[in-house]
Automatic annotation (TrEMBL):
<protein>
    <submittedName>
        <fullName>NTF2-like protein</fullName>
    </submittedName>
</protein>
Amino acid sequence: MSILTKEDIEIATRAADHFTRLYYSAYDSPTRIDDLPKFYRPNSAVSWNGNPSEGAQGVQELIANMPKTTHEVQSFDCHPIPGSQPPSLLITVSGMVTHGGGPSANPPAIKKTIEGHPRVFTQTFMLVPDTAAPPKPGEVAKYYINADAMRFVG
C-alpha cells in the first residue's frame, strides 16, 4: 500500500483546481457540444441527476438537449486515491447552475421548469491518469473522467 505525501496532496489540489476551471468553462461555452466530451472516454460512467449515460458520446447526447448553462462553483474538494502513481483523484464540486437565460428569460406562464432558475448542485468526479497522453517533462499527469455523478440538491 502506498502512502500519500503532503506533496501528493498539494499536486492533487492544484490539478483539481485546474480541472474544475477548465471543465465548467467548457460546460458553459457555446462550443460545449464539442469541448465537453473531450474530458471523457468511451467507457466513462456518467449519471446526471440519476439518469445513467456512458462515455463521451453519452455526454454529447445529454448536453445537446440541454439549454445553455452558467455554473458558479462555490467549493471543491479533492482526494488523491493511493495505489497508482500518479494517483487517481476523487473530486467533489458544489455550486449553483442556471439553465437558460436566467429568471428574466423565463416566460411568466411557465412555473415548473429548471430553465432560468438557479439550482444547487453537487458533482463528483473520479479522474484517472490518461496513459494515452503522457505528460511532457515538467508537466503534471493528464487525466480523464472515468466516472461523473451530478445531482441537484436544491
